[in-house]
Write a structure and sequence with these properties.
- It is a single chain.
- Helix 1 packs across helix 2 and helix 4 crosses helix 5.
- The chain is built from five helices and two strands, in the order αααααββ.
- Among the domains are: 30 residues, no CATH class; 47 residues.
- With 139 residues, the chain is mostly helical.
């Protein structure tokens, strides 16, 4: 296979393909693996920040959720950390389960003895026979 066909198959330029081929010849299979593999992200927080935040959560905010905790960190501790990052950190340390309590269903009516047996009411406003002017509700 030519370099041009390999570059087209991998959707990269010929020039990039020559770089990849040179790394393969110099380092073997390891030359094809991304060199940041197994390393910490350059955009990640230092471990000291993570330890400080988890300690703060344990000591001062154990009953807060990640979103409210992120707001408290920003307001009171001048730490701006996304709530999803906090959620992941708290899950990793076992401080946040992320499971909501099931809500209790409304009270159900009692089942009837027979299918279709519902209690039905009808109401009518009537003047009482003995009371004269007084209106009585009859069910």
């Amino acid at each position: 296979m030519t370099v041009a066909k390999a570059a087209a198959a991998l959707d990269m330029s010929e020039r990039q393909m020559y770089r990849v081929l040179r790394r393969f010849h110099n380092h073997g299979d390891a030359g094809l693996v991304h060199r940041m593999r197994g390393q910490h992200s350059n955009r990640g927080y230092p471990g000291s920040v993570r330890r400080e935040v988890v300690h703060l959560y344990r000591e001062a905010y154990p009953d807060y959720g990640p979103t409210l905790f992120a707001e408290m960190l920003a307001q009171h501790h001048d730490l701006v950390i996304d709530s999803d990052t906090l959620r992941r950190w708290l899950k990793d340390t076992g401080l946040w389960m992320g499971i909501r309590a099931a809500r209790k269903h409304r009270q159900r009516r009692e089942r009837r003895d027979a299918i279709g047996a519902l209690v039905q009411f009808d109401a009518a406003l009537m003047r009482g026979l003995k009371t004269g002017a007084r209106v009585v509700v009859c069910l």
